[in-house]
Design brief:
The structure holds 2 protein chains of 2 kinds. By secondary structure, chain A is of the alpha+beta class. Chain A is about 35% helix and about 30% strand. Chain B contains 5 helices and 5 strands. Chain B is of the alpha/beta class. Classes of the chains: A alpha+beta, B alpha/beta. At the A-B interface, helix 1, helix 2 and helix 3 of A face helix 1 of B.
Chain lengths: ~160, ~120
């Protein structure tokens, strides 16, 4: 049976944001594009092994700061850049770990990389991959997105 | 009772540490498996270590293997708290000597339930 990745990503993301942050996030059909929304942070983890690709969490800087302030229990104006990167990296890690469990082949090993976080105003490009799913979410007036990219298989 | 929280994310160390403190534990933390082995020597003994899997320097699985090699840590419970959600990984960790396995995202209730199964409830 074909997996509906958008549906699975939506459920995992809602669970993670609610259980770890206590925030309600709602899947939306609105599009989130970093090029239009000012400074965006991009968290990324690679999946390697029986399934190869990456998972990205694209989050506007203002929302990422709110996430970090909740995770570290600090005021918004006390939240440091390191706190923000750590918090977004961990959310990306949890999202990627859950997605990995959907796509890996049970008979083969599959690994998750450590998360990387970058500040970017453009859409991140991972060479040799194509987008297989993108789910956009809304929290209050903020949009954010989770993208799933699969490595393009070489023709034999 | 004393808990060692091992995770490379400062945010998770803080959140999990707060959960454990609310459950009545004194908490020490470490940012990777090697740091955790050092803390076992310098700050031990601990009743339980809560261990992430994917960490730099030394991952959680290697920490479990190393900790279980030393008989002085035989009584310490080891609980994996990780995004590694596949059954093969769970089995691998349990075979290496982990006692329990919690998948992220976790809640205080999930941790409390696992502690209870390990006979470590304080509340």
């Amino acid at each position: 049976m074909e997996i509906d990745f958008n549906l699975e990503i939506s459920q995992y993301t809602k669970d993670i944001w609610e259980q770890i942050l206590g925030l309600e996030v709602i899947p939306t059909t609105e599009d989130f594009s970093p090029t239009e929304k000012g400074t965006t942070l991009a968290g990324c983890v690679q999946i390697m092994g029986s399934w190869e690709g990456s998972v990205e969490l694209l989050c506007p800087a203002e929302l990422a700061k709110k996430v970090a302030s909740i995770m570290f229990g600090t005021n918004l104006d006390e939240t440091s850049e390191d706190d923000i990167k750590d918090a977004l990296g961990e959310l990306t890690n949890m999202t990627g770990g859950n997605i990995k469990s959907l796509v890996h082949d049970a008979d083969q090993e599959c690994f998750l990389s450590l998360p990387a976080v970058a500040v970017s105003d453009i859409q991140m490009h991972v060479p040799g991959t194509h987008e297989v799913a993108k789910a956009t979410f809304k929290h209050e007036n903020h949009l954010f997105a989770v993208r799933m990219l699969k490595k393009v298989e070489k023709k034999k | 009772m004393r808990a060692l929280v091992i995770d490379d994310s400062r945010a998770i160390r803080l959140i999990l540490g707060q959960v454990m403190k609310k459950l009545g534990f004194e908490v020490v933390d470490a940012g990777d498996g090697q740091q955790a082995l050092d803390k076992l020597k310098s700050d031990g003994p601990f009743d339980i270590a809560l261990v992430d899997w994917n960490m730099p320097v030394m991952n959680g699985y290697d920490f479990v293997v190393n900790a279980r090699k030393d008989p002085q840590y035989n009584d310490m419970r080891l609980m994996m708290v990780t995004t590694e959600t596949e059954m093969a990984q769970v089995v691998k960790a349990l075979e290496a000597g982990a006692n329990e396995y919690v998948m992220k995202p976790f809640t205080k209730e999930m941790i409390a339930e696992k502690l209870s199964l390990l006979g470590l409830s304080i509340e």
